[in-house]
Amino acid sequence: MMLKFILAIQIVFFSAGCFSKNIFVVGSVINQTPPSQHVENAKVILLVNEERIEAEYLPSKGTFSKRLAPDKYAKEHIAFLVLHTDFVQVDPERDRVRTGFSGKTEHHINVRTKEHLADTLVLSAKKSALTGDYIKALDQLDSASAIYQSFDIYSYKVRLIGDALKTQSTLPIRHMDLTTDGDFLNYTKGLSDLERYKLFLQLGHVYTNVPDPEKEIDATTSYFDVAVSAYAVAKKANPANARPYQGEYKLYQKTGNHFDAAMVIQSYFDNNAVIKKGSTIRTFLGDWLTSFEKVTGFPYTSREDIAKDTLYYDMAKRLLVTIQQYESIFKHDNKPSSKRIRDATTLLKNIVERR
What we know:
The protein is α+β, with helices and mostly antiparallel strands. The protein is built from 15 helices and ten strands.
């Protein structure tokens, strides 16, 4: 009996001794981006149950520590969260420990620069794409852009969407319409006009070149809608460049919207009072004339009938005025495209003069 009593007393004193000491959580934040080194100015948060406890951080050494009361935090699971402008945890799921009854609990947290970790994910995405797993590749790119947003990542994502749609008819909705992706749009607000122009022009081309641009992505949006929106941003970013207008013209022609195609070309001349490149002028006037022919049946429809239709008449008049504005470029040019425009000029004058 005496022996049992003595053992009971020893257990009580042992337990009391354990809980009388603090739990001391310590560790460091290590940058794994070569050359490996400690990270200054990080904030380390201990996540215990539903509590967020900030550890004390020593910038000169990249170490952290926090004393916890044993009566509350003994044998508790702790997750670590590192907050930093330039760094992100390599594997947050592994940054977990369980405290003892007392004493030191040590854990070292590996981080990399956001750019470096994003580059690693992009490399993984490229490997996935090579095997044809485009959905996995796009998911990896989303993870990369969530860590570190860059022009190259989004440009590659747009390219992958185009590659994927060549081999499969659709993709998960999360990868289909970047023009309604809040993160993407917020990111592009910080781009230069040139970068925004390049990115949205690329996006417009991807959706123009799908087999059926009028196919719906969801209940309210089609590939066509996304392409038009993308070209609008590209044109606003670089109004003088002809490529967004060419892309949009091709989109309307592909879907049989010849009147709208003509309006796209007209808008290019409206938005650019002086155009110096002769090849662009010849190409666009030729495209405009093609659309006019498809809409009106010109030159086979009678000029009287075209002149009677206000819509057709206005289009003919506007086209003629523009041709006359740049007449010097193709007046004495032997190129077939220039001869076609010269031949059409006489017929257009005849239409306009009938009113």
